[in-house]
Each structure stands twice: as C-alpha cells, then as structure tokens.
Amino acid sequence: MQKDYYNILGVNKGASKEEIKKAFYKLAHKHHPDKKGGNEATFKQVNEAYQVLSDDAKRSKYDQYGAGFENMGQQQGGYGRGFGGFEGFDFSGFQNGGAEFDFGNLNDIFSDFFGGGMGGFRTTRTPRGRNMQTEINISMVDSILGVEKKMILGGHKEITIKIPAGIQNGQTLKMTGYGEEIKNGKPGDLLIRVNVKFTHKISPKARELLEQLKKEGI
C-alpha cells in the first residue's frame, strides 16, 4: 500500500503550504525520537511527507503518480536498463554514516567493469581529494524548525550550513566539494554530524518561540 502523505500530516489534498508547515511542526515536535514519548518511525514518516509536500515540484509529481514517483524515471529509462544484470539494482543502500555515497563519474565505474567507458572507450579517472568530517551542535528548537549555521574551514574559509527542519540527532549532512582540495583533481566532500543538544534550561528566546507555536496550534 502506498503512503498517503496528506493523511500522515493530517491535512487535505488542497492544503496550503502554510497549513502543511504548521501540521509538520506540530507532529515533529510531538514525535521527535529524542523527546520523551517520541516515536522514531512516526517521526521519519512525518519528515518524509513534509519533504515531498513542501516542495512544489515533488508535490505535483506525487499528486500525479503517488509515493513511487521518484523511482519512475529509473523504471522508464534509468542507467540499469541498458546493461544486462543491473535492472532493478537498488543503489540507495550505499550510504556512509548517513551521507549519500558519491559514485563519481559513471563512466569510470563502467570502465572498471567492462574495460571501457559507457561509449566503449577507456577514460582517465580524475583524482579526488579525501572527504573531511566535522560536527556541529544545534538546539532542539533548531532541529525542529531548521536553521542556517556559519562555520570556518581551514581557519579562513567561511561556509553556510543549511540544516533542514526535522533533522535527527546524529544524522550526517554532506556538502559536496568542501573536502580536501588537490591539484588537478576534484575536491572531496565535507561530512557534518549534527548533534542535537537537549536541556531542561530553555532560553527566553526559545521559550517565547515555543509559546508562539503553541498559540498557533503547532
């Protein structure tokens, strides 16, 4: 049975983006797994539903094709169809600490398998820098609502990290191209572990925000 994202968030199919956002905040706050009485499975479903319905393009495809819309392109003409033995192969399981596995250039991969590129000739593999890892701490409120944080890399380069609403403690974000830089090659990626800090002491600003959300029924 396909997932009904509207039903998961408790909104009707014609709900506005603001109604969807309010429903998500309310359910995310209720089911957050690091909160007493929270439910990780329900929280993941709520977050998945919000990621689709809050995006106009994804929502339109979901309304047309249902929850399996993201796989339709692969079924109709994905990479696997042109190579015997790769049909139906699920690449989604290749993950590294919560970060998406980077396959790099597909031409290089098929070159390793068949002794030539996808076009039948060998290509030169581009050297790539190492991935770098770091951590960042955020509050429970920021984990629910989402936040942007500044970070300094290498003592001089400032970057902005966009942390999505509904992120869980211990999840890893990947920033492509922000890892080790090497000469005549591609930079690696930056993997950022997100630590959600929970405390009984809530700042006046956070308390004010939570009270406002409560008044709005979120």
From TrEMBL:
Chaperone as UniProt keyword: yes
GO terms for cellular component: cytoplasm
What's the short name of a Pfam family annotated to this entry?
DnaJ_C
- Please give the PROSITE patterns that the UniProt record associates with this protein: DNAJ_1, DNAJ_2
Query: Which keywords label this protein?
Result: Chaperone
Write down the InterPro entries for this protein, in alphabetical order.
DnaJ_C, DnaJ_domain, DnaJ_domain_CS, HSP40/DnaJ_pept-bd, J_dom_sf
> Which residue numbers delimit the J domain?
4-66
SMART domains linked to this entry: DnaJ (SM00271)
Q: Name one GO molecular function term.
A: unfolded protein binding
Indicate whether Cell division appears among the record's keywords: no
BP-aspect Gene Ontology terms: protein refolding
What is the official name of this protein in its record? J domain-containing protein
